[in-house]
Specification:
Largest sheet: none
Helix content: 55-70%
Radius of gyration: 42 Å
Mean pLDDT: 82
Oligomer: single chain
Number of helices: 27
Length: 508
């Protein structure tokens, strides 16, 4: 390659106009010895240039005799940058000696040969400990060992990386992998791994701002402390809860993200302390999200203390999101007291409508006669249409003959807003209201919108009586638009009678 560069450089130079003879010509003749080419014999691989004669146009370069004007080269001054060339050492691109090992290791890793990959990465680190890839090689060797379940050796390599290569590009990845490995080892009963998780899961003092010890951001899942904290999920409650208590006792801003994650982990641990820690966080943590999550997870603590705490939040807190979490938590409690609190909240005219809607919804998910009677009575007291609609929906979800009759009463009540009547009629049809009651209803209806809604209700039922009602409308309804809607829904039916009716209408 170096020879070709020289040839090309020479060709470029001879294309310049020849300079007139000058006193420097004698000096150039001395340079004909091409002292700058000393060491050319050391260029490995020149034997591979055999066959260059096949390159078109190079025939005339044999022996350089064809390079006319070569004698006019004034000391090679025209070759900018060549003045420092001695034996072409400067032209040889320095090749990283780790390239071949790195490439082989990567190929082994990619094809799933983790044993070979670990060995090759390890060889690279041992043979070239001061190379730029040495630290990263330890990480990838550890990763390969981790893939092969060789956790002890993988841990050892990552600890070495932390100690010897603090500036390695993969150091943060190594921290996360180490936490994963320590978690797996702790689960297997490794005491050292358990101690490591306990130590690293706890927030550092605010003044400690070294690597990996500053504030943790929301999406910083690779942080060593976050990884260690998540490792507590794999530990039993007796070991994990004391650590989580210390994390949640913090009140500084830098530990906020850790506290948010700790609340979830704590909710998965059953211990005598779990309730107290959650209650404390729900009441006193300075971060609203931590408080909300603590309240949310109180849904998993089935005690009267938790219910009383949730009741207190609904009565005293002005935080709407916190109230929503309290409503949900109460809905998951299977105690008469919790249901009573939800019913009381649903009646409160001073409470946010959005939260009252959620209370009504969750009451509808608990299929009790007491809740159903309460909701039917609540409907008459409400002035907010959205709340009334939520009551209609909740009762439809409960099912039952009594609720179906109530829905039909709302649908037939001309004093009710038309939209509420339509929704009640729709849900009555969806919850299995008696077709003997629905079928004759069409002729009694005076409101056109209600008739249109009835056509849709019939179309959603699969009984023969529903199809009969659609056929009658398609044949006899004087309102052309209503007839068209009935005909449309007949076209969606697979009943042969529907096809016959459509044919009759076509042939009219």
């Amino acid at each position: 390659m170096q020879t070709m560069q020289l040839v090309l450089a020479a060709v470029m130079v001879i294309q310049r106009p020849a300079a007139p003879p000058s006193p420097q010509l004698e000096a150039l003749q001395l340079a004909r010895q091409l002292d700058a080419l000393q060491g050319l014999q050391g260029l490995e691989g020149l034997s591979g240039l055999a066959g260059l004669e096949g390159l078109p146009g190079l025939e005339g370069l044999q022996g350089f005799e064809a390079l006319e004007g070569f004698e006019a080269l004034e000391g090679f001054e025209a070759l900018e940058g060549f003045e420092g060339v001695a034996g072409f050492e400067a032209l040889a691109a320095e090749q990283d000696p780790t390239d071949s090992l790195w490439r082989a290791a990567r190929q082994a890793f990619n094809r799933g040969d983790y044993s070979s990959a670990a060995n090759l990465y390890g060889d690279l680190n041992r043979r070239y400990p001061n190379s730029t890839r040495a630290g990263d090689a330890l990480y990838w060797a550890a990763f390969a060992l981790y893939k092969n379940d060789d956790l002890d050796r993988a841990r050892s390599l990552l600890v070495t990386q932390q100690r010897r290569y603090p500036k390695a590009a993969t150091l943060r990845d190594g921290d996360a992998l180490l936490a994963r490995i320590q978690t797996a080892l702790a689960k297997q009963g490794d005491e050292a791994a358990g101690r490591w998780i306990s130590e690293h899961a706890q927030p550092r003092p605010e003044a400690d701002t070294g690597r990996g010890k500053g504030c943790v951001s929301e999406d910083d899942d690779d942080d060593l402390r976050v990884a260690a904290l998540m490792g507590l999920l794999q530990m039993d409650a007796t070991k994990a809860v004391p650590i989580l208590r210390k994390v949640l006792a913090r009140r500084d801003a830098c530990s906020t993200v850790l506290r948010r994650k700790a609340v979830f982990i704590l909710s998965q641990k059953r211990s005598p302390e779990t309730e107290d820690i959650l209650l404390d966080a729900a009441q006193h943590d300075p971060d609203s999200e931590v408080r909300q999550q603590a309240v949310f997870w109180l849904s998993q603590v089935p005690t009267e203390r938790a219910v009383e705490m949730l009741d207190s939040i609904l009565k005293t807190s002005k935080d709407q999101e916190l109230q929503e979490k309290a409503v949900f938590a109460l809905s998951q409690q299977h105690s008469p007291k919790a249901a009573e609190i939800l019913r009381a909240y649903a009646e409160r005219s001073d409470a946010p409508s959005e939260v009252r809607e959620k209370a009504i919804f969750w009451l509808g998910q608990r299929h009790s006669a007491e809740n159903a009677a309460f909701l039917r009575g609540l409907y008459a007291k409400l002035a907010d249409d959205d709340l009334k609609e939520k009551v209609i929906f909740s009762l439809s979800q409960m099912g039952g003959a009594e609720n179906a009759r109530w829905l039909m009463d709302i649908a037939l009540n001309e004093r009710e807003p038309i939209e509420q009547r339509k929704k009640a009629l729709f849900w009555a049809g969806q919850t299995g209201a008696d077709l003997d009651q629905l079928a004759p209803l069409y002729d009694r209806m005076q409101n056109r919108e209600m008739k249109e809604q009835l056509i849709f209700v019939y179309s959603q039922r699969h009984e023969a009586a529903a199809l009969d009602a659609l056929i009658k409308i398609a044949k006899t309804e004087p309102d052309k638009e209503l007839r068209k809607k009935a005909i449309f829904w007949l076209g969606q039916s697979h009943d042969p009678r529907a096809a016959q009716v459509l044919l009759e209408i076509i042939n009219q």
